[in-house]
Amino acid sequence: MGGREMGRPTLEQVAQHAGVSRATVSRVVNGSPTVAEPIRQAVQRAIEELGYVPNQAARSLVTQRTDSFALVLPEWTTRVFSDDQLFPGVIRGVSQEMETADKQLVLMLAGSAASHDRIERYALARHVDGVLIASMHGADPLPGTLLRMGVPVVCGGRPLGRVRVPFVDVDNVGGARLAVRHLLDTGRTRIATIAGPQDMVAGIDRLNGYREELRDSDRRSIVAVGDFTRDSGAVAMRQLLQDDPQLDAVFVASDLMANGAIRVLRENGRRVPDDVAVVGFDDIELAKYTEPAMTTVRQPIDGLGREMARQLLRLAAGEQIPDSVVLPTELVVRSST
pTM value? Predict the structure, then answer.
């Protein structure tokens, strides 16, 4: 009776079929370069003829690799799976790159201190070969902890705090400056902003870019802060209208917040863009379908995920990678300005 009919073929059966030792088969399966080419080919033929499938758990014991990588999002489930298209875009980009490299992706959400601890234990137990961390709040200790323990880690967005961890980011400061310069060039004089959360690098950098461009143009800042959600954009817009009823433009640090802001402007009888021009940030699908269609700063959302994955795969393979990769942003002009 053949090996296929007796159940899953074993390493010993492959060795017997190829006329080599079990150790030689193991070296071929694990990609060792020390096996002579004729022997390697004989083992590969035996593997194909018997239908042998390597035991991944046993292979991991030999290679000390799992071929799995974690993407950690320090957010609550309700935020990740909301109508914010940033998270699906990053996940899609990472997944595409991991699939191309024939690696497994593990998605882990960390919206609480307990989940942070669980993820730390999981990574330190070497269940994955490396970790990607995106959407960090504050000086998150997780990247530094993993780095000290020798776990390859790459962050999406510049980490806050003193720890030096490789990261991939977009040009948030430059994108914000593009938005404000466009508003100035179209004749707007009282330009407000709805900034993102100030415990996140995207929120901080976009506010800094807004302030830098206004300072260079000798204009004053008018600031309210949201949390990148539609409702927070609406609340912040109401605050801005109270603070400066004569404002004629607003740069909003995310398209979702800008959508909420446009609704409030309409409720208060302000026409967009006739009375108040609006520029968002992200260029999610929603931006094309607001009324009017939204001028926004496009960031390469899928590209961010892909580049994070590329850098982590290189790092896990023992290659040197740059401390930082910053992807460009661009202004997309539509009808809201």
Answer: 0.79
